[in-house]
Amino acid sequence: MALIDVVQFEGNDRDFVWKFPSDNLRFGSQLVVKPAQVAFFVYRGRICDCVEEGSITLHTGNIPLLTDLTSLPFGGDSPFPAEVWFVNLISKLDNKWGTQRPIQLEDPKYGLVVPVRAFGQFGFRIAEPRKFLEQIAGATNVFTADQVIDYFRGVILQSVSVNLGRAFVTQKISILEAFAHLDELATQCSEMIRSEFAHFGVELVNFFFHSINIPDDDASYKRLKVLKEKAAELSVLGRDVYQFDRSMDVLKTAAANEGSSAGLIQAGFGLAVGAGIGQQMAHMVTALPPQTTSDSGYYLVESDVATGPHKRSQLERMALDGRINATTLVWKQGMSCWQPASVVQQLEGLPFLSSEPPPHSRTTS
To answer: 13 — phi, psi (to 5°)?
Structure first.
């Protein structure tokens, strides 16, 4: 085998550890170590001398430990067996990471367990090349950036899982709001990852989240969106109005079903609980007659309480008594929603819709 005159790195920018392909060296050969590299002499599995950036001529003076181990004569030009390993010190910043399978987490605001996915990017560099060579590279001739990523993938995903779960539980961050906390979550993950990397001589340069999401076609995600919309509606309307509105829906559905009054009474108690007016509603619903015809009369909202059904003649008396007016909400079977009395066509001609005041309130001459 021919003697080697020049020893230098011949890998590519994705090779973080590269072994020179020959161990047939001799004194007098040139060792070239390029910027952001370091070279190690290895003899029988033991790391000996280290040479940093520059070009040197090999002699016993600059590889003293190797000389002692191999008992090389001073100034000799005979070949000697030794491996030369190069470690690349450049920063590799464009490394993608992502959860291969969704992480099952409970949303703290809505109480649903949903499958969460996370994706991002990180950068690293070899900060302690000797430690990295000893603990990770092993006997492989080339150790690439992809192998580094694969080696630490478990560390990254464990950190993401732990910190996401911790953030959702302790900080009450909803999964639907996680995008607003990406920087904060990345900082928390970085601390754990940086500590693990340091054990192997690797420095974490940066760590980012690109997204935290739930698969769009997942049933729990659809349910979560519905709950968020309901919560937003509650926030806008206020709790009392929201519960009253929901109870009106229950009452309307029950009243649309023919049969005995039991269904309507049940709906009435639901309304009472929802709107916080249980005692008033309980007295009202016990007086409700059975629903025997399709024309079940009119329901009114009086002082935030639903009453009815009322016949048209009853509405006329209530209007004369001042209990209802043009803005009173009215509903009956067949109507799609509650409406002010003034827009209900069937109620045209009632006293409160007339341009003249009721008889008992007219001014006498």
So the answer is: -75, -5
Q: Judge whether 160 and 118 are in contact, CB under 8 Å.
A: yes
What is the pLDDT at residue 355?
A: 43
- At 110, give phi and psi (nearest 5°): -115, -5
Going from the C-alpha of 203 to that of each of 11, 89, 128, 198, the distances in angstroms are 22, 10, 8, 6
pLDDT < 70 positions in the chain: 1-4, 67, 69-79, 137-139, 230-296, 352-365
Q: Which two tokens stand for residue 344?
A: 């209900």
Residues in CB range of 339: below 8 A, 6 or more apart: 329, 330, 331
| pLDDT digit string, tens, across residues 162-197 | 999 888 888 888 888 888 999 999 999 999 999 999
**The dihedral sign for the CA sequence 9, 12, 16, 19:** negative
**How deeply is 239 buried, as exposed, middle or buried, from its count of CB atoms within 10 A (0-12, 13-18, 19+)?**
exposed
**Amino acid at the residue 67:** T
pTM confidence score: 0.58
- Identify the residue whose tokens are 């109507």: 335
Q: What is the pLDDT of residues 306-357, one digit of tens each?
A: 788 888 888 888 888 888 888 888 888 888 778 888 888 888 877 766 544 4
Which pair of tokens denotes residue 280?
């008033």
* pLDDT at 291 (0 to 100): 42
Q: What's 134's DSSP letter?
A: I
Q: Which residues contact 94 (CB under 8 A, 6 or more apart)?
A: 121, 123
DSSP state of 355: S
As a whole number of angstroms, the distance between CA 277 and CA 287 comes to 16
User: What pLDDT, on the 0 to 100 scale, is given for residue 3?
Assistant: 56
Gyration radius (Cα) of the chain, Å: 40
Residue 309 preceded by cis peptide, ω within 30: yes
